[in-house]
Amino acid sequence: MEKILVVEDDEQLLEILVLFFQGKGYSARGVVTAEEALSLYEDFDIVISDIKLPGELNGIDLLERIKKISPEIPVILITAYASVQDAVKALKMGAEDYILKPFDLETLEIVVRKALESSSLRKEVEELRRELRAVYQGKKLVAKSPAMEKIMDLVRRIAPSDVNVLITGESGTGKSLLARVIHELSPRRKRKFVSINCAAIPESLLESELFGYEKGAFTGAASRKRGLFEVAREGTLFLDEISGMSLSMQAKLLTAIQDKRIRRIGGEEEIEVDVRIITATNQNIDEIVQRGEFREDLFYRLDVVRIELPPLRERRQDIPLLVQHFIEQFNEKHNKRILGIQKDALVALETYNWPGNIRELQNVVERAVVMETGPYITVQDLPDKIFHRRKTDSGLNMEEFLEMDGRFNLEEYLDDEMRKFLKTAVVKTKGDKKKAAELLGISYRSFRYYWKKLGLG
Length: 457
What we know:
Helix content is 48%, strand content 13%. The chain has helices at residues 11-23, 34-38, 59-69, 84-92, 105-136, 146-158, 175-184, 203-211, 228-231, 247-259, 285-290, 296-302, 319-334, 343-351, 357-371, 391-394, 398-402, 410-428, 433-440, 444-453; strands at residues 3-7, 27-31, 46-50, 75-79, 97-100, 165-168, 193-197, 212-213, 225-226, 236-240, 261-262, 271-272, 276-281, 305-308, 340-341, 376-377.
């Protein structure tokens, strides 16, 4: 149901307009001043305003402010004091139409309907443009590994519903990106996707960010502020690092989710909120719940569908695709013309453990793109950490061993040493594993066995 805000100082006409549009199936509300309209208009799909209004601001001022902050909201101006100059000025400032009093109500409704249809079409076009931009700006999942294909199959099945989703996984695995993909594939994609990192904001500020506050609610509250629950109206609210939220804040969040209502800080009015909740954490949320650090009732509300994103080291098949994707992305960003990556450099990336996951890979590729002067990224463009392990992992001498007081693990040490030689041999032979096996003096069958056993592929 489209929402219409009518701004008119003639209270009799205002009542007629509101009742007329309500009778036509719209949700309509009327206010008398531009100042009051400015505090409400973001919740409406279209604004109809008289030009002459009481107070400091008139209809032209209202049009100017709305278009400056929310240009997508259509504004229709009506007036009894017409001039060609005013009409031209209003249309140049972005008014959808300019109507003279007295007017026929049915004619006005046709103008409103056309304005809403045009607005909807513009939104669809912008959505398509945004999706196209997203493809080139890393906003789409790039994957072909079985693990990620399974996840995307699940995403396609749950996205059309309003079910709450909990995304888990290490830092840098793409949890926020996956949340956005779910939103983009849902019926809510035409509304806002709003995200917040719950662990990065103090509790006192987090409450005002989520629920908003009224003017004068506390020192410094100079004006009313809408919370993210309201900003994400009919869209998606993504709560990242939810496990970092305090217990008292968890209780307030639970109430908001259960009742689908919020109350701004310092406010008395309860506000209905229609949002889809997606949450994420890089912690073991089950253990946190068991320790009593996260409310069990809230956990069950959030954990309706859980998606566990695997670390990059468990989806190495995706590395070549991701590397090429990032090369194209950073070519555009840094005005470069890198065509691709040499095979030995790619093998080095495929065999690295990636503790920082996709975010770390993205940073490594960007550094390489910036440094490379030729057409292809080479081994020399990659940081030393891709090849060299710390001394404590593989450079232990006998004196250090004797000082370790029994904490040494021989099996892990030998595995680390073998892993280092396997990786180095593959890099040296530019990815040819058969030649790498020959270089190491073992059979290709043995090479494949150890390669798999040591988690290299």
